[in-house]
Design a protein that fits this description.
The complex is a heterodimer of chains A (about 325) and B (about 475).
Chain A (H helix, E strand, L loop, with lengths): L5 H30 L5 H10 L19 E7 L6 E10 L7 H4 L6 H9 L12 E7 L5 E5 H4 L4 H8 L4 E2 L1 H10 L16 H4 L28 H4 L3 H9 L29 H12 L17 H10 L3
Antiparallel strand pairs in A: 1-2, 1-5, 2-3, 3-4
Helix pairs in contact in A: 7-12
Chain B lengths: L15 H29 L12 H32 L7 H24 L12 H24 L8 H20 L1 H4 L4 H36 L6 H14 L15 H12 L2 H14 L5 H5 L1 H23 L2 H7 L3 H31 L6 H34 L4 H39 L17
Helix pairs in contact in B: 1-2, 1-3, 1-14, 1-16, 2-3, 2-4, 2-7, 2-14, 3-4, 4-5, 5-7, 7-8, 7-10, 7-12, 7-14, 8-10, 10-12, 12-14, 14-15, 15-16
Classes of the chains: A alpha+beta (about 325), B mainly alpha (about 475).
Chain lengths: ~325, ~475
């Protein structure tokens, strides 16, 4: 019994040819285009504040915001304390995985890679001691990443102490929440190239994503695009009310309440009585109260702070 | 069934694996559609079950998607492969024990995967939401063992030719393993940026295009000739279907990112290839409908044919939508709207599900040698599914067109949300009907196993009269 007919040998070879050709066109060929893109300053800022990975990783398996960098606004030099122009610095404390463009400078594209290595000294970054990064522009208006620990002697501890808690943003931990809580199932991060720029702002450009993981564009837009939301609305107070119960500020919203991100206590360490709040809110909705109950101010170490810091970075 | 895990291969009755796969798939279908209906209720009534992280929409949405794709659809595929592949090769399944183990590991892996997903541990990548250790499990213990069983059964067949269904089964299991391997490279090797975004949609597109669509169609190529007794209208047309799927439909991944900053040549190429889905689609639909010649009474009288042909008919609007909605001329209007959600459900809950339900009904009766317990409940299942799905599809299509209009006319987003509200309620009602229909199905199949009339040797299930 000879089952191995020539036609099946031919068939399987043609199958391999067809599938291989298809993968060549859809994977191999685009990789040259995508791989040759230089990172924009938007991509550098984003990968530095979002860190190595915002989805599942061994450094943060439960997406609780472990081992995440901090973005701080510096108004004074952390070494000598002299006032300086407000500058954003990205603090990678000891044990925080380094950003992708620093781990793999090829990700930055040829120009940014060369500048970041030669002038920015990013190859001297160290996960075990911690590193502070800056986004810099050279005299030809080309952006690169600078390792401020190597060039300026800034230490993570010094930078955080100089900036203070009010100027420290937990945006990276917030992006993990964006992934964990499934915000991206409704809020896209991709204004479309056709008409969206009029309402939701400029569509992203080719080099705006280098080093970002995951990009989490979202595909099923059931709510406004939020890639530039902080440019439209930069009120933390509004965000706080909206996250606690979106229908406080937008009666027709279908967004879920994220009051559970407040955690057990408010900013003053008082226990938050969610049952009481919901009961009073229901009374308000039924017309038995004139005003809704007060939304508790979130604690400094609450998850909602991280999420709001993330949203505030979507400019 | 679990006792067969430790039995010797030759002691396991042929068909055991298929029964295990089949009942697992029905249970996952009930779970998956139940989650879907629950999620839909939240979109219609945002304060329905609130304040609990684990019952929030964002934690449950992907659990619904993965439960139906990997639980219902893929396990139903496994079930059909376990019985169709050997029957078409006039032989036994290569390893019944591997089949039983595979179903067991599939259920374990999927339960684990959905649990961690529910917990919030996800990769942030649509359709590849599982963290990478689950992705590896899916590959090593779910799809590759299934493929090995199918390939070895085909190699050890006792027929000369290979029927078109087995072409699709052999290629489909191979392609899905390749797709899951390559599509998850961003997680295995931490690829970032546009590469990650593009590979996410390369993976998503190809799971649909090289696994669900072709294997679903392959099942129809078996069920319709087998039950009607008509030979397949044209095996050559089936070959056209097979080759055009492999050549055309493995390439249009980037049409999912039409308005993202990907290379323009890639988007244009994908768009043209995407229109060519009409070639395999027309080949498949015409082949099945021509095979029905002279037996159209069975479309009304026979439950399995009713399901399969309905699924096949849904492939017509599915592919007309699919072929054209991804062109730039149309995509700019409906991208990211409920239209796409409706289309995705037309593919998975319409075309694919209806074809598989027919095959699972037929296969379980054939293998267990038990006549379906109740035709009434079977018909009830059909109409619940059809009316529920249609309600869902029509309401989401309208909602999508509203969203599209809102998008181009710059309507404040909240007005779009208000306008969509009635359709969100309709969507929830439709989804609930589907869920209820599946509960009926599970009960009916449970009773079939327990109390179905035994089919005499030499007879086929549909030759016996129904008793209820």
């Amino acid at each position: 019994m000879n089952m191995n007919f020539r036609e099946y040998k031919l068939g399987s070879r043609f199958f391999a040819l067809a599938l291989g050709l298809s993968m060549c066109i859809t994977l191999f060929m685009p990789s040259f285009d995508i791989g040759s893109v230089n990172a924009t300053n938007i991509a550098m800022d984003k990968q530095l504040w979002a860190g190595h990975e915002s989805g599942f990783s061994l450094d943060d398996p439960l997406l609780l915001g472990w081992h995440k960098p901090l973005k701080v606004l510096l108004k004074a030099d952390p070494v000598n304390g002299q006032p300086m122009d407000p500058t954003y610095a990205y603090v990678y404390e000891k044990g925080t995985p380094l950003p992708n463009g620093v781990l793999h400078p090829d990700n930055l594209g040829s120009v940014a890679k060369k500048l970041s290595i030669d002038k920015g000294h990013i190859l001297e970054s160290n996960k075990n001691t911690g590193t502070v990064f800056l986004v810099r522009m050279d005299d030809q208006k080309r952006y690169y990443i600078e390792n401020a620990s190597a060039t300026l002697g800034w230490t993570p501890e010094g930078v955080l102490k100089t900036a203070g808690d009010e100027n420290t943003q937990h945006a990276a931990a917030g992006k993990s929440l964006f992934v964990r809580e499934g915000c991206w199932w409704c809020h896209t991060l991709l204004p479309e190239q056709t008409q969206d720029w009029q309402v939701f702002g400029a569509p992203p450009m080719l080099g705006d994503f280098n080093g970002e993981s995951p990009t989490a564009f979202g595909s099923d837009r059931k709510a406004p695009d939020i890639l530039h939301v902080a440019s439209r609305n930069s009120s933390k107070e509004w965000m706080m009310l909206h996250f606690f119960n979106p229908r406080l500020v937008q009666p027709h919203s279908i967004m879920p309440r994220f009051d559970y991100l407040w955690g057990p206590v408010d900013a003053n360490g008082q226990k938050i009585d969610f049952a009481k709040w919901r009961a009073e809110y229901n009374e308000y909705r039924e017309g038995k109260r004139i005003t809704p109950p007060e939304v508790p101010t979130y604690a400094r170490n609450s998850e909602i702070r991280n999420l709001i810091d993330f949203v505030m970075n979507l400019k | 069934m679990l006792k067969y895990l430790m039995a010797r291969n030759e002691d396991i009755p042929p068909g055991s694996a298929a029964v295990y796969w089949g009942y697992s798939s029905i249970v996952w279908f009930v779970i998956g559609t139940g989650l879907g209906a629950f999620n839909a209720a939240k979109l219609a009534f945002p304060d329905f079950v609130t304040g609990l992280e684990f019952l929030s929409f964002g934690h449950m949405r992907q659990v619904h998607v993965m439960a139906v794709i990997f639980g219902w659809i893929s396990m139903a595929f496994g079930m059909t492969m376990m019985y169709m592949t050997p029957m078409l090769g006039n032989t036994k399944l290569w390893s019944e024990k591997l089949g039983v183990w595979n179903a067991f590991l599939w259920n374990v892996g999927l339960s684990l995967g959905l649990t961690v997903l529910w917990w919030g541990m996800n990769s942030g990548r649509e359709y590849s939401d599982f963290p990478w250790f689950i992705d590896l499990y899916v590959l090593c213990f779910m799809t590759i063992p299934l493929g090995i069983n199918v390939w070895m059964t085909i190699i050890h067949r006792r027929t000369q030719g290979i029927y078109i269904t087995n072409w699709f089964f052999g290629a489909g299991t191979f392609m899905v393993s390749i797709v899951l391997l390559v599509g998850n490279l961003p997680e295995y090797f931490h690829l970032t940026g546009l590469t990650e975004a593009y590979l996410t949609w390369w993976n998503a597109h190809n799971i649909l295009g090289l696994w669900i669509t072709p294997v679903g169609a392959a099942i129809g190529y078996y069920t319709i000739p087998k039950i009607t007794g008509n030979p397949l209208y044209s095996h050559r047309l089936g070959h056209l279907h097979f080759w055009s799927i492999v050549v055309f439909y493995s390439t249009p991944a980037s049409h999912h990112l039409m308005s993202a900053p990907l290379p323009e040549w890639l988007k244009s190429f994908a768009s043209v290839e995407g229109v060519l889905i009409l070639v395999p689609a027309i080949a498949f639909v015409s082949n099945i409908l021509m095979t029905m010649q002279g037996k159209w009474n069975m479309f009304v009288e026979n439950l399995e044919v009713k399901f399969t042909v309905t699924g096949c008919l849904m492939a017509i609007p599915l592919n007309m939508q699919g072929g054209f909605q991804q062109t730039r001329a149309i995509n700019w209007y409906i991208h990211g709207t409920g239209w796409i959600v409706a289309h995705a459900h037309l593919a998975l809950l319409g075309f694919s599900t209806f074809v598989e339900v027919g095959a699972v009904y037929f296969g379980l009766q054939t293998i267990m040698r038990k006549k379906l317990w109740s035709l009434t409940l079977g018909n009830l299942h059909f109409w619940f599914l059809l009316v529920g799905f249609t309600t869902y599809w029509v309401s989401m299509t309208i909602a999508g067109l509203i969203q599209g209009a809102g998008k181009i006319y710059e309507v404040p987003y909240i007005d779009v949300v208000i306008a969509e509200h009635p359709y969100m309620i309709a969507r929830w009602l439709g989804g609930s009907l589907v869920f209820m229909g599946n509960c009926v199905w599970l009960f009916n199949m449970w009773m079939t196993a327990r109390a179905g009339t035994v089919i005499p040797a030499g007879r086929m299930a549909h030759e016996l009269a129904y008793e209820r």
